[in-house]
Every structure is written in structure tokens, then in C-alpha cells.
């Protein structure tokens, strides 16, 4: 059979060079995607005073909306054409979008909508994740799959570490920075990161053009021809017969959706939450938030390296279940308790927005506030958020403990969910299926930011994190129901023992 060809040493070397090129591509892309995540909210406040925390959710969601739309398209494209094509096109779109983001301050009005469009185009470029996962799933055996997928996630995590680190370094430039008047380009702490992201995108295109080759092996690691090979025809393709378990496919998509939903809302809420709870300025929020996310990225890499060893002993499903439980504990710790309340912003008060407090308390707070430096504007919990007056603050130690637990659970669940998914699908081309998986993750990244910003702004962290705990608990129950069905295609059809 065409798919039953013994792999040569030359083919093996070429295959692993290509896989490592994709590791590097994911690493560089992740830097480009994450290098602005902590500064979006401060930059949005700077360029458009009409933007509020709820609009922040839409800006962040626009990235995921673009990714959700593009992923199935790029996945389908990769099933029938060389995978270089969708990869190069998607990266070029990201480069152009980053350049647009650097100019969102130029229009005289409606700047927040230009930022919305720019982030949406970056999301379209991020649709190539489906192509990368499809390639790695098709170019690795079952024995190689966990390690390869974990390495992919580790490269992404390392990129997400260095993204905030670079962003933190660029914070030293300051909000003013320098201006290149001829092309109306401001290079400051908000635009320098996206310009670096555009440069990394160009570097990715060069790597893919020069080093990436098409490869496919079956579940046992034997070389097979594919429709994406330039020299192969459709009549040469033969794959093992058998039906894919569609219940397991749908369940895996739901699990992946929830995992991405949880992390997207956590990533979104870090900046507004810390600015409200600890009265951090915009520059402090970018600096400290970048450090926190970078630390979580280091933690994620350690977890991913440990997962490669642990999965051989207890299996992917057990790790997925354990990760969800750890995430639930993390969000439970996030719930505010105690009798200490956050500092309130008293500037720009309106009579119809003042809660029921005494006149003396207002005078004392105004007197204290007048003695502070407000070069960046008021700090603390906005008076428009009525819950600030009756919801206890989340202590910094409480916040950091919960963040560490979420940093343990998220990478574990993330890599296990799409590793299981790739095994469930089997050796057939997975471009479209991976496109749908990436689209479900993108939908989570749309709904997560919108959900958390709306609930947080209206009802506060107690309601927001209580609802998250409920969602995670329901997901754990779903995993228990489908636990026995989440097995590899070859195991399900008796070709390979589990």
C-alpha cells in the first residue's frame, strides 16, 4: 500500500527539520501575538477616551474572531495544497496588521475602532495554528505525538514569556517616545512591540520558504504519500479504513473551547483587575502584568516538559482531568473575602453616580487624593463600578496563588486536549478538523474576554469568578462522561494496543 513505505534516513532528517522549523515559527509568532497583550488596555485609554473596560473585551475578542473565521479556511487549504502557501499568506497578513496597529493613533476620531480592526487582522493571521497542528499530527507517529505537541506548546509558551518581557523592556521608552514625522510614526511603549512583531513575521516567512518540506507518516511512523506533496496525485493516497468517533470529536472541541475560554478571560482581566484592586497606574500595570505573565510562561514550560514524562505513566486523559481540577481550585481562590476594600477613584464625580456614603468620607478622600501625583490620571477602582464599595479586594498574595495554580492547569489541559484530538482523528489529513478545533478555541477567545469584562464591570469579581468555577465544574463532569471514548483512532479499531 502507498501509505506503508519504510522511512529512509534522509526522509527522517528532513521530516524533523521541518517539524523544528514549525516549532520556531510558533515561537516567533507567539512573541508577536503576546507582545502587546498587556498594553492594549492602557493604549486604548490613551488614544480614545470613549473606550471603557467592556470595549476592551471586544478588542481582544476581535483577534479570536479573525482566527475563528480563518482557521477552517487555512485548514481546508492545507489538505489540498502545499502547506507553505497558507502559512506564508497568514503570516503576511499578521505583518500588515501589526503595521496598521502602529498607526491607530493617527486618525482624528474613532481610534478604538481602528484598533479593533487591526487586532482582528492579526487574528486572521493566527489562523495558521490549525495548519501547524495538522502538519505535526500528520508528520508524527503516535509514539512521537505527545512529545511533539508538548514541544509545540512549549515553544508557544516560551514566546508568550518573551512577549511580555520585550513589552516590559519597551515600557522604558515611555508613552511619549519619539516621532518620525515624515511617515507619522510614533515609536513608544505601545507601538515598538508591534513593529518588532512585524519583523519576526518577515523572519518566519523566510524560514518557511527555505526550510519547510512536506511530510506524512502513519500512526506507526511509516512514510506515506499525501495530497499535499507536489509530486503526488490523488490516486496515490491510501489510508487505513475506519470511522472517526464523532462523539469524541465534538467532546474534544468542547473541552478545548472551555480550556481556551478560561485562559482568555484570565489573560484579559489581569490588567483591569490589578489596576482596580491595587491602584496601579497604566505603566505599572503593563510592567507588573508583563512580569506576572512572563513568570507564568516559565512555569508553563516546566509543566510541559514534565507532562511528556508523566503522560507515559498515567495517560493523557488523567492529566487533562487533573488540570481541570487545579484550574477550578485556582478560580475558587480568586473569590474575594475579608473586610478590606479597594481604593476608589474620586475624580470627575457626578452626583447621579455617587453611592450612598457620608459627606465626610468624600471630603477626606478628596483631600488625600489631591496630595497625590496624578500625571497618568486617577488610579483605583472606578466609581462607576458600584461593586467597588461593597466587594472586598483580592489580596495580592491571593491573586498570585490563584495565578500559579491556573498556570499549572492551563498548559496541562491545553496540550492534552489537542493531543488527544489528533489521536482520535487518526492518520487521515486533519487540516479541516484542526481548523474546527482552532476555530472552537478562537470562539472561546471571543466569548471569554467579552464575558469577563461585562460581568466584571457590572457585578464585580465575586460573581465573575463564581460563574467561572461553575463552568469548570460542568466541564469536569463532561470529561467524566466521555472519558472512555477519548482514545486513539488505531486503538479504537484494534490496530495498536493502548
TrEMBL record:
Residues 18-487 form the Major facilitator superfamily (MFS) profile domain. One of its GO terms (molecular function) is transmembrane transporter activity. One of its GO terms (cellular component) is lysosomal membrane. The chain crosses the membrane at residues 21-43, 55-75, 87-104, 116-136, 157-174, 194-212, 247-266, 286-307, 319-337, 399-421, 433-457, 463-483. Keywords: Membrane, Transmembrane, Transmembrane helix, Transport. It is found in: Endomembrane system. The keyword Transport applies. It is a multi-pass membrane protein. It holds the Pfam family MFS_1. It comes from the Eukaryota. PANTHER family: INNER MEMBRANE TRANSPORT PROTEIN YAJR, MAJOR FACILITATOR SUPERFAMILY DOMAIN-CONTAINING PROTEIN 8. This is MFSD8 protein. The lineage of its organism: Eukaryota, Metazoa, Chordata, Craniata, Vertebrata. The gene is Mfsd8.
